[in-house]
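User: Before I run my own analysis I want an independent prediction to cross-check against. Here's the chain; please return only the structure tokens and, at the end, one sentence I can use as a sanity check.
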Amino acid sequence: MDLRGLGLALKDHARARGVTASELIRQVVAVLLENHGAAAGADPSVDGVPDGTVKLTIRLRSRMAIRFSESARACGLSRGAYLARLIDQAPAPPLAIATELGRSTEQLAVVSGDINELIRTLARGGVLSGPLVDVSLRPLLAEVRRHVDLASRLVSELRPPRTGSMRGSGAAVEGEEGHP
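Assistant: Structure tokens:
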């Protein structure tokens, strides 16, 4: 908004009242609208969108904004989705790490199948005694399967949603694609 030289006075006035300039402007506009009967029941914090996506404007120093955007991009998330994860105290690891963990888990799943096939082959051929298979290979197979199960659940939680939609993230940041 172009205040035509009133910006400094507005900021001083807001500071004296212990509010931001934006909040002071909202208060003044609300009073003007109430005088005309237009502001009944208005909640300026959500722009009339209960439980919907709300545009959030944040101010950061340029270097921090660059780091924020780079971190979100490295995790394969939009800035809004990345911020929502941080607010929920569930920061996402870089996408490369989640992808590599996924590849490793897939390879271990193949190894698990190979060990299982080896156990069946050995049991059919009578090459190794039952106790040796039970003491050595079956516990290894159980550990590999436990790791694959745990890692695959973790990978599914670490990967960003494929929809590209901001609906599930609960946040939008000014400047995001699709947000004015």
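Sanity check: The first strand starts at residue 55 and ends at 56.
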